[in-house]
Amino acid sequence: LLTRLGKVEVALPGGDAIGSRGLDFHIKGLQDLGAEAHSEHGYVIATAPHGLKGADISLNFPSVGATENIMTAAVLYGKEDVRVEQVAIPKLGQGEVRLRVGAALTCGTDVKVFRRGYHATMIKPPAVFGHEFAGVIEAIGEGVDSWQVGQRVVAANSAPCGECFYCSRALPELCEDLLFLNGAYAQTITI
């Protein structure tokens, strides 16, 4: 809402069953995201003259969950329609790792997909956009023993299916059903 309108005024948060809510961490969170924010006459007033940016926001106390599992990402919705939004961070499955994206590139395929609004096999909107990236492993799922938190990695953005006619004949470079990985234009990506 702040990004769309440029300025918002929200009534100060009240208490609830778990106690009163401190105002300072709300304002600090907005400031970490690039907003100018302060309280005045019972309202939090925030402006974003230069837009908002992604940020790591750490709370020094347990959260009820609403702030812990989201990230900022660029989501492709269609032809020349990419929106920066808050999206859920996927839970790690067995054999998966989560990277903190350090760099994400834009290649010619990204430009074509942006202009067309889709790719027949690689990405179907709405979806987090981007497929070339590098980063640092920040979490490891069960069954992962050859990778470590803190390792710097670059991942391939596609892989052979391992099951089609060509893959079953040891010709993965001719795979008929490539598996694609998208989601590089985000704070984290799960592989």
Written account of the structure:
There is one protein chain. The chain has about 190 residues and is mainly β. Helix content is about 10%, strand content about 30%. It has three helices and twelve strands, in the order αβαβββββαββββββ. The strands form four sheets. Strands 9-8-6-12 form a four-stranded antiparallel beta sheet, with no helix packed on it. The protein has a three-stranded antiparallel beta sheet with strand order 1-3-2. The radius of gyration is 20 Å and the shape is elongated.
Defining key terms:
191 residues, mainly beta, 3 helices
Main sheet: strands, sense, barrel? 4 strands, antiparallel
The pLDDT mean sits at 85
- Give the SSE string: HEHEEEEEHEEEEEE
Distance between the termini: 31 Å
Structural class: mainly beta
Helix content: 10-25%
Low-confidence stretches: 15-20
> How do the strands line up in the largest sheet?
9-8-6-12
Q: Which strand-content bin applies to the residues?
A: 25-35%
> Number of helical segments?
3
Number of strands: 12
Radius of gyration: 20 Å
Shape: elongated
SSE blueprint and pairings:
Layout: H1 2-5, E1 7-11, H2 24-32, E2 36-40, E3 43-47, E4 70-78, E5 81-88, E6 97-105, H3 108-116, E7 127-128, E8 132-140, E9 152-154, E10 158-159, E11 179-180, E12 188-190
Antiparallel strand pairs: 1-3, 2-3, 4-5, 4-7, 6-8, 6-12, 8-9, 10-11
